[in-house]
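Task 17 of the worksheet. Students: predict the tertiary structure of the chain below and write it out as structure tokens. Keep your answer in the requested format; marks are given for formatting as well as content.
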Amino acid sequence: MSLDRYTDELMKRGKCDPSFSYMLDTLLQSRIATDHESNSEYFDEDVNVYLSLLLNSMVKNGFHREAARYVAGYESDLPEILDQARTAVMKYRVYRINADYLLLQTGLFQVPGETDSVDTSLLSSIERGKTYYRFACSLTDRIPERYRPLSSVLAKLSYGFDTYREVLSFMRGEFLNLMEQLNERDMIALYADMDDIGRNEALHAARNALLDAYLANRKTPSEENRRRFEAALEALRKLDPDAGADLDLS
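Model answer:
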């Protein structure tokens, strides 16, 4: 199989990474085993690279760090996350990461169950994943050109979501040894862990901002610097009500 049509955007990471190579190799084997060989319906070797990079980033925790910021634990949470995304690039990233998360969730961690409610939940996640990839693709016309090579990849992921999910589902048991299905309680715990990661990052940033404002006012006392300190303290106390008790501007 020829792999010479990868775009620079997809090639720039993981090119010689052994874990990336393993992901790509097992993905291609899984496509053959599930009768979904590459390029059988349309050219999609670029999707192979995207999925391999995605799986590799999950193994190395890169995806988890991104997901902690942008993944909506429930569909109703997504509008609030999008409201905080001030630019088209950020909205694009929110949709793409949520779509990636749903593809991984339904392909690696969520399989059809015996009850209608489980099946309904799975179908809902699949439809949301398709929609989010489509929305991310539509936003590529409004963002910097360096993101645009992914436009066709996202369109293919939206169109072939079920196919790629089936391939990942085969990989989970045959190559990744993810045989134990995560139940609803496990998924809630995973969401909680991501929330904790995001909260810790926000706390770290808020503490740094408060310390900067405190030092600036100590060096150059002024009404503006005092207001900056008070605003930083208020922002931090929304995350930690007891924070800043040891800082005194008087």
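Marker's comment: The chain has a mean pLDDT of 79. The chain has two domains: 8-179, 183-250.
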